[in-house]
Task: inverse folding
């Protein structure tokens, strides 16, 4: 799985960070940052969940 984000659209909800803190973080302004663009398989489920819960759908996944 490959993950990409469009942080310009981030509304700082933080749900992705709460679900997958090994993959996502937030800067001092609350904007999402990607820590791993190719997370290990054991994190794929939480990354998918993070993408589905993002209010502005800024997380893009490709297999």
Result:
């Amino acid at each position: 799985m490959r993950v990409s984000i469009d942080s310009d659209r981030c509304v700082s909800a933080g749900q992705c960070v709460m679900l997958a803190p090994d993959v996502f973080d937030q800067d001092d302004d609350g904007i999402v940052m990607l820590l791993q663009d190719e997370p290990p398989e054991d994190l794929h489920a939480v990354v998918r969940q993070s993408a589905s819960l993002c209010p502005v759908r800024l997380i893009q996944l490709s297999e």
Observations:
- Residues 44-53 form the longest helix (10 residues).
- The chain has two helices and four strands.
- The two ends are 5 Å apart (CA to CA).
